[in-house]
Amino acid sequence: MTEIAATGNSFLSDMSIAKKNPTEPQSNELGQSAFLELMITQLENQDPLSPQENSEFIAQLAQFSSVESLDKLNNNFDSFANSFVANQALQASTLVGRSVTVPSDRTELKAGGVVSASVDVPSSSGDILVNISTEGGSLVDQISLGVRPAGELVMRWDGNQMEVNGELLDWQTSQENGIPPGTYRFDVSTRVDGEEVKLGTALSANVNSVTVGTNGGLTLNLAGIGAVGLDDIKQFNE
């Protein structure tokens, strides 16, 4: 795998599939040159009293043409695959340093930064509570969002204040010196039909680096979250 931590041109030269997956020579493969040599040897050593039929010779020429076509097809595919991996690597370099939103219950709060959170609120839900705790499980704050309509709930939290759907809540952290930068866990819950239900969250996180796999697949390494696949990205943030 190749890890990209900053935009640059030097890594593109290392993205060749041939370099990533060197092919071991196969002694049992019949290539174009070997096929042609075999056919010429057969013609030179045929019985002059019983020469090869024209139909057999034409059939062998057809086989030779097929081998040649397959060889060209393989070369074209390798070229296409190399270009695909290089293109993936170039795209990966543009993601480093950006913020993305992924399904997660924890993320990193940077100094002076803001964490965005998205929650799907079911119908007939009661008061929505947001518990914010440290990685070790110590509760930092509990925020009541009240009763909210069904649909997507978007929150923005800077460690001191909380904004919900564009409106600033009348709330401030209970921590005397504010909440310091670090990795925090978000547990969002409500009551549906009298029972407590935990709601899934999607949190924003910074892309620290991108790993390009040998097959061209991208894995994003997110601050406070870890490795996630490109398909897990819910949103690219501004």
Name the descriptors.
Immunoglobulin-like; alpha+beta; 3 helices; 238 residues; five-stranded antiparallel sheet; 15 strands; ten-stranded antiparallel sheet
What do you see in this structure?
Helix 2 packs antiparallel against helix 3 (54-95). Helix content is 25%, strand content 37%. It has helices at residues 17-20, 32-44, 54-95; strands spanning 2-4, 99-103, 106-109, 115-121, 127-134, 139-147, 151-157, 162-164, 167-168, 182-192, 195-199, 201-212, 218-222, 226-229, 235-236. The chain is built from 3 helices and 15 strands. A hairpin with a 4-residue loop joins strand 5 and strand 6. The strands form 2 sheets. Strands 1, 2, 4, 7, 8, 9, 12, 13, 14 and 15 form a 10-stranded antiparallel beta sheet that branches. The protein is an alpha+beta fold. Belongs to the FlgD family.
The overall strand count is 15
Mean pLDDT score: 78
Compute the number of structural domains: 2
CATH architecture of the largest domain: Sandwich
Q: What is the H/E order?
A: EHHHEEEEEEEEEEEEEE
What are the low-pLDDT stretches, counting only 5+ consecutive residues below 50? 6-22
Strand content: 35-45%
Structural class, please? alpha+beta
The CATH C-level name of the largest domain is: Mainly Beta
**What is the overall number of helices?**
3
Characterize the largest beta sheet: strand count, sense, and whether it forms a barrel: 10 strands, antiparallel
Helical percentage: 10-25%
Q: What's the overall geometry?
A: elongated
Measure the end-to-end span.
28 Å
Radius of gyration: 30 Å
InterPro entries: FlgD (IPR005648), FlgD/Vpr_Ig-like (IPR025965), FLgD_Tudor (IPR025963)
Protein name: Basal-body rod modification protein FlgD
Organism: Saccharophagus degradans
Family: Belongs to the FlgD family.
